[in-house]
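ARCHIVE CARD
Drawer: 12
Card no.: 0347
Subject: one protein chain, sequence and derived structure
Cross-reference: see card 0346
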Amino acid sequence: MPAGKKAPAPVAVPASTSYAPIKSVGVEPLTDAERAELESIMKVDLNTAAALEIEGISGVGPKMAEAIVAYREQHGPFKSFADLDPISGMGEKALANLTQHARISGVEGGTSPIVPSPKAATSGGVNINTASLEEIKTIVGPVMAQSIIDHRKENGKFKTVDELDAVKGIGPATLEKMRPKVTIE
């Protein structure tokens, strides 16, 4: 203790003071199955996530995230983590990290793959003014898809593709990636 400073006086707790354990009221602990399901849902789905969402996974940089999305767009949805192996830069360490922090829809612990409606597939892109959340999630991740829906509800239909730039989370680079995948009708 520095010279000239006094140590704080100890605090006396009366002997009659008792502390009851804190009890949670009305909350049951999760079962192992419920915990596993919750953890699976919270993981980034590599079959539906946009590059920005994949980049949010610890240890995944922008180049790897873009490579994952490009490979998925070229070869279709992933069926297992082994499908990631041919991606440039995908080593054992990166693959192990993804298996821990991501999921692949349509496989055990995931959800069914999202398939665009026939209307979206035949029009040359997703009509951003009429598409459902699920249809928009085929071109961007779930958070950005919800932002597009919210913006559309608040501001009405988009008149041009360029107006997507006003949606929270969509900047010029993202807009350019989306442009060939969307239509405005």
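Annotation on reverse: Residues 118-183 form a domain with the DNA polymerase; domain 1 fold (CATH 1.10.150.320). The helical segments are 32-42, 51-55, 62-75, 92-101, 118-122, 133-136, 142-155, 172-178.
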